[in-house]
Structure formats: structure tokens, C-alpha cells
Amino acid sequence: MKRKKLLAIMCAAALAAGCAAGVSAEEISPTAAEGGGQTAPANIAIYNYTSDLSISGGIARCEGITYVQSGYTASTYVELQVSDGSWRTVATWSGGTSAGGSYYVSGGSYRVRTTHRAYQNGSLVETVYSYDY
Prior knowledge:
- This protein is an alpha+beta fold.
- It is about 20% helix and about 55% strand.
- The strands form two sheets. It has a four-stranded antiparallel sheet, with no helix packed on it. The protein has a three-stranded antiparallel sheet with strand order 1-2-5, with no helix packed on it.
């Protein structure tokens, strides 16, 4: 009987300690991910996106597409980057729902980095980055 009483007291104490510790949470705004390295909530306005890179015959073809919910405006910014120890941008394209173009390349490792943005009434609502290698 003493064991059950002791166990009940220990459980109550543990529960009380857990409640007293408290928990806090911070809301992360969709644009917080741009500078703070935090992940913003997804699918607020952008419901799908793509990045595409194909290289053939020394020509890199790059494309990015941003799909937004009704009531939002899309912005797409595509960068062709080459790696020389770190990624360096060699060509850029921008547009609304889609952007892209072609660029002559020679040797090396390339990727496409696409910035997908959604605006509502002129204010930035969400930013998502995607890559293709």
C-alpha cells in the first residue's frame, strides 16, 4: 500500500513540475526564412513550384514555375549557378508565373536556383526556394 501511495505522490510531483516549467512558442512569419535560416510555413499562397535544368550541346536550358492560390500574384526569379568551390550566379531570368532561358556553358557543375514568391495586394506573403542539378 505504501508503494502505491509513493508512486501516486511521485506522479503528481512530476506532473506539477511539468506544468510549472511552461512552454513558449514563437510564430514564424513567411518572410522570416529569408534571413534567419528558419523554415516558414508552407502552402500559404504557393501550392506548387518547379525548377528545371537541362544541359545539352553546351546549352543550359533553365526554367522555374510558381503556382499560387487564387487571389495571389506570383513572381519567379531563376538563377543559373556554377560551382567553383561555392555557387556563383552566371545568368538570371525573372517573370510572373514562370521565368527561364538558355545560356552557353562549358564544363563544370551547374544548378538552377529558383526563388518563388507570392504577393497579396502588393505585399510579400511567402517565399520558397527550389533547386535542380
